[in-house]
Specification:
binds 3-methyl-2-oxobutanoic acid; 8 strands; EC 2.1.2.11; alpha/beta; transferase; about 40% helix; eight-stranded parallel beta barrel; 3-methyl-2-oxobutanoate hydroxymethyltransferase
């Protein structure tokens, strides 16, 4: 949507219009100001301060341990760094499930303390009341269905969702999220044809994270997409760069230059 629709600040109405016009929405995660500045300048529509930060920034092996306070600090740095992108803060595990009031309190913290433009939470039918409470308070909500990493132990690991009989549950989840007032919904790790049918059944845009080309937009964890994480990435990740390798090489050059005293040169000294 970026190039075809020049806008000052992306708003939820722009996502709705993109779907209506058949323009694809772009999304990336962001966790700090320097990366958010680059993504914003490049024209990404939606930046998600994802709880994936638990894995890719803080070094945990799941998203479960990250806290609201940790994500508020990261969200603040991302909102400060952006001028155009719509910034969504991810509500972490344990910060919204208990009650609608708890969910609203967490969402309000992200809006007031971090300057987020909206929040995301995981779950369809089971989270409809939380989504409704938050949207009724005037806060945009991005839903998240299909594979929901905060429930990975309940789902039996990183397993593709919505296959066979499970398609009906996925559709019910999508419709519940829409009916509760979400402006868009992330569909994670679902077969292309299933995500396509859900996309056509909804008025709100679907954002794919491993949901195939028929969704209304695509999102990736930035460290996966640009090769800043090492190790195996999911099948749906396309690596657009190999930053970890480039950085390692550059650090090696720095070490060599210090050892052979070619750094600092006279020009780099006072
Ligand atoms: O935390 C995250 O990065 C996410 C995306 C994968 C949607 O939830």
């Amino acid at each position: 949507m970026s190039e075809q629709t020049p806008v000052k600040r992306v708003r939820t109405r722009h996502f709705a219009k993109a779907k209506a016009d058949g323009l694809k929405i772009t999304g990336l995660t962001a966790y700090d100001a320097p990366s958010a500045t680059v993504f914003d300048r490049a024209g990404v529509d939606l930046l998600l301060v994802g709880d994936s930060a638990a894995n890719v920034i803080l070094g945990y092996d799941s998203t479960l341990p990250i806290t609201v306070d940790e994500l508020i600090t990261m969200t603040r740095s991302v909102t400060r760094a952006t001028q155009r992108a719509f910034v969504v803060a991810d509500m972490p595990f344990g910060s919204y499930e208990e009650s609608t009031e708890h969910a609203l309190q967490t969402a309000v913290r992200f809006m007031k303390e971090a300057g987020a433009h909206g929040v995301k939470l995981e779950g369809g039918v089971r989270m409809r009341k939380q989504i409704r409470r938050i949207t009724e308070a005037g806060i945009p909500v991005l839903g998240h269905i299909g594979f929901t990493p905060q429930s990975e132990h309940n789902l039996g690991g990183h397993v593709i969702q919505g296959r066979g009989d499970a398609e009906q549950q996925l559709l019910d989840d999508a419709l519940a999220v829409q009916e509760a007032g979400a402006f868009a919904v992330v569909i994670e790790m679902v077969p292309t044809d299933v995500a396509g049918r859900v996309t056509r059944a909804l008025d709100i845009p679907t954002i794919s994270v491993g949901g195939g080309v028929e969704c209304d937009g695509q999102m990736m964890v930035w460290t996966d997409a640009f090769g800043y994480t090492t190790g195996r990435s999911p099948k749906f990740v396309r690596k657009y760069a190999n930053l970890a390798e480039q950085l390692e090489q550059a650090v090696g050059n720095f070490i060599n230059d210090v050892h052979d005293q070619s750094y600092p040169s006279a020009d780099e000294s006072y």
